[in-house]
Structures are given as structure tokens and as C-alpha cells.
Input
Amino acid sequence: MASKDFSNKLKSLRLKAGYSQKDVYEHFKIPQSTFSSWEVGKSEPSGEMLIKLCEFYKCDMVKEFSSDNDLTYIEWEMIEKYRSLDPYGQETISYILDREAERIKTHGKISDHRVLNLIELSPAADKTKTLPYLHERNHS
Output
């Protein structure tokens, strides 16, 4: 028996992708009862079938079914962007993260207000692209 969270997630991904159950079970040539049992939690697809379903739904299986649910959407986006970089880009990001982690250890975190002041003082900063979530919070 599958967990309710798993079966709900499977159904949610199908709906988000815009498919009916019939679309999916006909595409994969599997019995309707088998597919339905996955979405109601009576059974689970094999690992191979789960991979195929995620590819069909055009979703990231690791992201969708990871037990690490405390990551935000922005953090997932950052991970995806990091993975798309070449080794030079990944090394550059690692260097920046190491420097920032050391700065926080040494000086502590600065407040959102101080970050905004630093951004606004920077003549080179494109204020429409730099930390938009901070701008939205302060200008709302």
C-alpha cells in the first residue's frame, strides 16, 4: 500500500500537466485499474514507471518526491541553475558561497533593511533584478 502523500502527489502532477487518467494509461498501455490504484494509494508504480511518468509529466522526480521538503521554491531553482552550470560556473558559485558563509560567521547576518540600503547605494545594481522579494516586501 502506498502512502496517501505519494498517491496525492502523483495525481496532482498528472492534473498539473493537464492529463486525464485515460490519457496516461493509454499512453503507457497499462490497465486503467492499475493506474487508478496508484492514485488512490492501493499500490505504487515501479521505480522505472515513476521515472517514465515524471518524464511524461515534464517534472523533476527528485524535486517532486524528495523527502527534503524544507527547501523553498527559490532554493530548488538555485539548485537547478547550479546544476546547469559548467565546472567553471560551479566553482565560481562555490567560491562566493564560501565567502558569504565566512562573512556571516564573522559578522553575522544583516537585516533586510540594511541589504536594501546597500542595493540602493550601488550604482551598478539593476534594482529590478536584484533581490526582488526584498523590494516587494518593502514597497508593498
